[in-house]
């Protein structure tokens, strides 16, 4: 069996840009948010905005998990997902969390929440994502007796090569410098959530994001409420972030 790397993110955290690096490497099977169909379509926990699911191919948590582990029989796997998509199932699945290499990606919630709201004005508090992330972060730490790896998106934007070199070294893979740059274009892994990933599809590398948003935590009370709720969870994980060599 080959390694399975789980990139546990929250929305608007630059996670698809990291996923793009794994695609460019060529030595991983890359899966894009495989548990999202469980959350949005099978369980109907929220409205899947700007998504295009195949309703004839919906699967249970167990089936999705099996797809991931079966793929690892042939090749190393990287899947990117949000903990809230499958949080309740993960809480009862210690064996899966032990089997995979868990990496957590976080971004300053001030920026992430504004970016999320711009894409989905109906975003729920749960979909902001940090609370579920921190819950699984703590569970992995307890299971392994080792602090999980955390990438901070701000650090990543400042030194993409350095942060990714540290990450790959920590998870046991060679850092491939040529994977840090790519030809712009859409990838089939993103078909379901295509409208959410236009920026990375048009990119050629990880660059600093300085987008300004009309609605922020400073002028939108709902976003301020979401920020206050999730900030402590972000801060708990931030203290564990990795640094460049």
SSE arrangement:
Blueprint (H helix, E strand, L loop, with lengths): L3 E6 L5 H11 L2 E5 L3 H7 L18 H11 L4 E7 L4 H4 L3 H6 L1 E6 L2 H11 L5 H4 L1 H15 L4 E4 H6 L1 H12 L26 H4 L19 H18 L7
Parallel strand pairs: 1-3, 1-4, 2-3, 4-5
Describe this structure in words.
- The protein has 245 residues and is an alpha/beta fold.
- It is built from twelve helices and five strands.
- It has helices at 15-25, 36-42, 61-71, 87-90, 94-99, 109-119, 125-128, 130-144, 153-158, 160-171, 198-201, 221-238; strands at residues 4-9, 28-32, 76-82, 101-106, 149-152.
- Strands 2-3-1-4-5 form a five-stranded parallel sheet, sandwiched between helices.
- The longest helix has 18 residues, at 221-238.
- It is globular and about 50 Å long.
- The two termini are 30 Å apart.
- The mean pLDDT is 94.
